[in-house]
Design goal:
Blueprint: H1 15-52, E1 59-62, E2 67-73, E3 77-83, E4 86-91, E5 95-100
Antiparallel strand pairs: 1-2, 1-5, 2-3, 3-4
């Protein structure tokens, strides 16, 4: 006959063998978290804090590369003066950098 009977072979570790198979996958996820996800969350948190701290008189750079001075701050937008009598409305999250901060007015 061409077909031979299959004999039971010893199991290769049972439940422990299955758990050891998941260790590389778990290790890859942990490495991805510390190398990619965590720094991105920190950068997002820093950007959100920078945007929330914007106030009138700050000199900013937009994501498009335009440099201007903040004239007006609303909930979701800024009014930025790019040149004398040239004002544009910009979404707050498109601010890439704050070049100079203004000192808060004393009460």
């Amino acid at each position: 006959m061409f077909v031979t009977p299959a004999y039971a072979q010893a199991a290769a570790g049972g439940a422990a063998g299955g758990l050891i198979g998941f260790v590389p996958i778990i290790l890859i996820f942990v490495i991805m978290y510390f190398l990619m996800i965590r720094p991105q969350q920190k950068k997002l948190k820093d950007h959100r804090a920078m945007v929330d701290a914007l106030r009138r008189g700050d000199q900013v750079v937009t994501a498009g590369g335009m440099i201007g001075k903040v004239v007006k701050v609303t909930d979701a937008e800024l009014e930025v003066e790019l040149a004398p009598n040239v004002k544009v409305r910009v979404v707050k999250n498109t601010i890439a950098q704050v070049l100079s901060k203004t000192e808060p007015a004393e009460a």
